[in-house]
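testing teh design pipeline on a random one, pls ignore if ur not involved
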């Protein structure tokens, strides 16, 4: 499974997935409960947040679980 790169570009959150750039049309919730908002806020489980600045990105890694 691949990784996603989320970035703030021109005030919009975009996802680079499988070499395709896609607009983030709804908030994304990561497996640890962290929420990535469409406006560039990264909201932690405890409610604190940071806002991405133009051009900043986040790498979301998806691991492969062994059975």
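output:
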């Amino acid at each position: 499974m691949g990784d996603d790169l989320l970035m703030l570009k021109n005030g919009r959150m975009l996802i680079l997935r499988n070499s395709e750039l896609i607009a983030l049309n709804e908030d994304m919730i990561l497996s640890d409960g962290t929420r990535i908002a469409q406006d560039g806020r990264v909201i932690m489980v405890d409610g604190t947040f940071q806002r991405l600045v133009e051009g900043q990105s986040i790498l979301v890694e998806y691991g492969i679980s062994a059975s």
